[in-house]
Amino acid sequence: MSLKQGISLTIRNVVVALTVGVLFASTNALAEEGPSDFAQKHIDSIESHSQALYAPTPTRSMLLKRQEPQVNNKQLMCLAKNVYYEAGSESDKGKAAVAHVTLNRANSSHFPDSVCNVVYQKSRGVCQFSWVCHRKASPKTHTDNWADSLRIAREALEGEIRDPTYGALFFHAVYVKPVWSRTFKKTIRIGNHIFYRRSH
Questions:
Q1: Co-location of 153 and 189 in the same domain
Q2: pLDDT tier, 12 (very low <50, low <70, confident <90, very high otherwise)
Q3: Residue 193 Cα to chain centre, angstroms
Q4: Do 178 and 141 lie in a common domain?
């Protein structure tokens, strides 16, 4: 090996040694003092994106819950009572039918604009729903009929069950035939009730 080659090799070894030393020192300093502000920002960004990637995929029930309408407890109780007294012994479909007639009225310009006002409406001193004028006792809240009526009322208010009456605003029991039934269009019979809507 010539002198020139030896000097070149020595210089190369010194440069390598210095580079390794600098890297080692930097690594120790980083371990002791933590990453720089610039590096920390990048780390935080990576972590936030990672959390988003590993977040659980929303299920249908989660999405529905986010869109779930708020139920007013007063309106719920009015509707539940109407279902209970008018259709307490009917099937779930029969209960839902009465619930939707009540809601259809609340959404109609021909009736009051809230569930409670619809339920307790009087026309010339006559109650729209007979149980209101008969001053019924409080619902027997320990019974299945009340539990079912309350459940159906809540589901109807939350839009979880469709209207089985096809938009009916009126109904009566099958064992009576009121005069007004001739002026409306029959939509369906469900259980012991016949339902009607306006002809136009």
A1: yes
A2: low
A3: 31
A4: yes
Establish if 67 belongs to a structural domain: no
pLDDT of residue 52: 45
Q: What is the pLDDT of residue 54?
A: 47
Same domain, 42 and 84: no
Q: Which of 95, 87, 191, 77 is nearest to 138 (CA)?
A: 77
Which range marks the domain in which residue 30 is found? 3-55
Residue 68 pLDDT: 47
Q: What tens digit of pLDDT does each residue of 22-52 get?
A: 444 444 544 454 555 555 655 566 555 545 4
How far is 190 from 83, CA to CA, in rounded Å? 14
DSSP state of 120: T
Nearest to 128 by CA among 184, 174, 180, 90: 180
Q: List b or e across 55-82, with b for residues whose CB sees 16 or more CB atoms inside 10 angstroms.
A: eeeeeeeeeeeeeeeeeeeebbbbbbbb
Residue 143's nearest CA partner among 131, 135, 151 is: 151
One-letter amino acid identity for 45?
S
